[in-house]
Structure formats: C-alpha cells, structure tokens
Amino acid sequence: MRYACGLEYDGSGYQGFQTQKNGPSVQVATEKAFTSVAAHDVQVFCAGRTDTGVNALSQVIHFDSDAKRSERQWLLGVNSALPRDISVLWVRAVDTAFHARFSALSRSYVYKILNRAVRPAIGRQQLSWELKPLDEKKMHAAAQYLKGEHDFNALRSSQCQSKQPIRQIQEISVRRFGEIVQFDVTANGFLHHMVRNIMGCLIPIGLGDQSIEWMQQVLESKDRKQAGITASPQGLSFKSVQYPSKFGLDDVTHIQ
Questions:
Q1: CATH of domain 106-238
Q2: Tens digit of each residue's pLDDT (9 = 90 or more) over 128-178
Q3: From 51, 95, 223, 251, active-site residue
Q4: I need a surface site. Which of 43, 121, 134, 218 has the fewest CB within 10 A?
Q5: Domain boundaries of the chain, sorted by first residue
Q6: Could you tell me the sign of the dihedral formed by the alpha carbons of 134, 137, 142, 144, in that order?
C-alpha cells in the first residue's frame, strides 16, 4: 500500500530534508518514526528537498507499507514518535502510480522578511530581517521579469546538480503586510538555492541599491556572478505542492 502524507517542520535544527552525513535531517527523523509504527523499515520520498534551516508548511512525502494501520493510526502513531519540530498533518492512501516528487505539477515557496529597525525575537527562525526600509512595489515589479519559462542559471548555486537550468515560474509576487514583506513563488520546479538567490537580488532592489531592470539583466546574463548574494534560509518555507486531481489530494495540499 502506498501512502501520501503532509509534513510541517521547523528546519532550523536540521541539515535539510535529505539524509546527510554531517548532521540530522528531516528524512532520517521521519523514517525513524514511520518505521517504529510500521514495525519494518520505511523509506520516504519528498516533493522538494529543502536546504539547511528551511522550513515547510506543507511538504508532501510518500512511503510504502503493508502494515495494517488506518490513516488515523498512522497519523497519531507517527506524530507521537516524531520530535516536536516535525508534525504529520495528514495521511492518505494513494494509487501506487503516485510519487511525491515526480507526480507534482508545481511547488510553491514563501519567503518572509521582517522589515523594521529591531530584530525579531519571536518567530526568528521563520523570518528573515532587514532593518532598512524596503520598497515592496519595486521588488514586485522586478520579480515579474522572472515569470514564465527561462534559463535560471544565474540564480542557482554552483553546487546545483540539475542537468538543465530551465524552469517555468507560474506565479510570483511581493506584498507587504504591515512590517512583513512577503515573497510568494510557484513554479514547475526549483534549482538549488534558486529562491534564496532570487531574494538576494530583490532585496538590493527594494533597498534602492539596484534598479528594477537589474533583475532582467541578471537573468539574461546566465551568470551566477552577476546576481546578488544568497539570502539567509531564515524566512524561507516550502509552502505547498499541486498534483493532478486524479490522486485525490486537492483538499489537503491547497494552502492560501
């Protein structure tokens, strides 16, 4: 039997989602919890491998098990075995054709910046911080150059293992909610550090250090050296995943 699950986690204590040799990972913690409930080894596969310090509001994973457990038993049992900074939000049996990564139509991320003179005390692992005023309207205008299908070579890390840099951004916006400047982006896929490198360009634009058109120049250069520095992982969260309706997950994967 194949199951899909939604995960919420605080990534500040982990070296990313994927199993690592140099520290704890969300994958290892999650597999350990599912294994304890299944009474056999369980391997999980995720929709998007988040980096060190990056959070998730609704990561999606899948795993296979023949253990006789109801969806409720999986949910309660695994959550009791997980550390407090990881929670399973839902569990649902799915067709064996479902794959958390390869069945995804799109993925969404959100990046939140606390824009005030005083650093955050509460929620500091979920917020980036910029003390100087940001012009979110300029940031939004610059972000529109990225919408559509492009070569994002200038906005991926030098360690990126993807064979090709073409991605399609479907929705992208920058909005202000009081002291919070929020960046939202949805794409068919993301390259390593792509969102943080986009923010590394939008922040200087918001500060007035670069023009709105600079974002287009960086993109067209296809040269990582032309872009800004990689923004901090604090503030970045994997938001949600969209799958074909045939898998019956629309009601649990949609997040505003």
A1: 3.30.70.660
A2: 999 999 999 999 999 999 999 999 999 999 888 888 999 999 999 999 999
A3: 51
A4: 121
A5: 2-103, 106-238
A6: positive
